[in-house]
Amino acid sequence: MDYGRLTFIGAGNMAASLIGGLIAEGYPVDRITACDPAAEARARLTDTFGIATTDDNRTAACAAETLVLAVKPQVMATVARELAPALAHCPLVISIAAGIPLDALASWLGSEIPLVRCMPNTPALVRTAATALYAGPGVSHAQRVTAERILQAVGLAVWLEEESQIDAVTALSGSGPAYFFLVMEAMMAAGRELGLAPAIARELTVQTALGAARMAGDDALDVAELRRRVTSPGGTTEAAIGVLEAGGLAALFAAALRAAESRAREMGAAAGGPRT
Questions:
Q1: For the residues 103-123, what does the mean pLDDT come to?
Q2: Alpha carbons 227 and 244: distance in angstroms, whole number
């Protein structure tokens, strides 16, 4: 696997996860460069992966065939405008910054730059991410393949038909790990109240979550059928599910995701800057 020289602008956790995943899959170390103003961040990547690092975004961008923007949304406009003069060769640019729409990126980088926007989530840190991608109109088939395989280095990658769907993705999978952590917190607390030792409650909860996720991913049956098969009539699971349904769990999750999607749209409008 080699898609030419790959440059990361930003050397935080998500960039490190992608770099680690790519190298584990055989991407040539000498074709990856990471840029960051923080010497400590650069040293960490060099020590961990043996890649080249620099604090000179423009020079690194000039040599890049694919550029991954992995900086915080609040500094994206400044970073992108600084990069623009170095992108005359029109490399593929992949943005993993939350809330920054493609038209804002195009206004800063140049309208001719092929752009892909994506929304990975934090399980990328353990290479089990769920990522949605959206390609701008100037992205070729080969560049779509490149973007997809880069994100697949840390997990699942799927394409969206509309950029506006990224707000829904943010609500579902972008914020989703926190929902599961919250459920796990509640289960652990309930287990302790039932008399289990904290360590036992934690181990059983985490393993149960892992097992359920693996069954849902591996089984041809949908999750509703898997739930029904675990829920014996008149049994303990039915008693628990009845309480959750009576409490409006499904409606509560629907309301929660709507709130997250609405907030994602608000943040995108605030962070997106000028439109073309």
A1: 94
A2: 13
Q: What is the DSSP string of 6-49?
A: EEEE--SHHHHHHHHHHHHTT--GGGEEEE-S-HHHHHHHHHHH
pTM recorded for the entire structure: 0.88
Residue 243, domain extent: 176-265
Amino acid residing at 144: R
**Strand-pair category, 115-119 with 129-135:** antiparallel
Please give the structure tokens belonging to residue 71: 């900086």
Residue 274 falls within a domain, yes or no?
no
Residue at token pair 């999978």: 173
Where do we find the tokens 């952590």?
181
The three-state secondary structure class of 72 is coil
Query: Do 153 and 195 fall within a single domain?
Result: no
Residue at 44 is within a domain:
yes
Neighbours of 49 (CB within 10 A): 18
Residues 57 and 136 in one domain: yes
Q: Considering Cα of 157, then 182, then 189, then 219, what sign does the dihedral take?
A: negative
Q: Where are the beta strands (DSSP E) in 16-154?
A: 32-35, 52-54, 66-69, 92-95, 115-119, 129-135
Instruction: Note the helical H segments in the chain.
Output: 13-24, 39-49, 57-62, 73-83, 102-109, 141-152, 165-169, 176-193, 198-218, 223-230, 236-246, 249-271
Rg over CA atoms, the chain:
21
- pLDDT tens per residue across span 57-106: 999 999 899 999 999 888 999 999 999 999 999 999 999 988 899 999 99
Compute the C-alpha angle 185/189/190, nearest 5°: 115
CA 232 from chain centre, in angstroms, equals 37
CB 76 within 8 A of CB 115: no
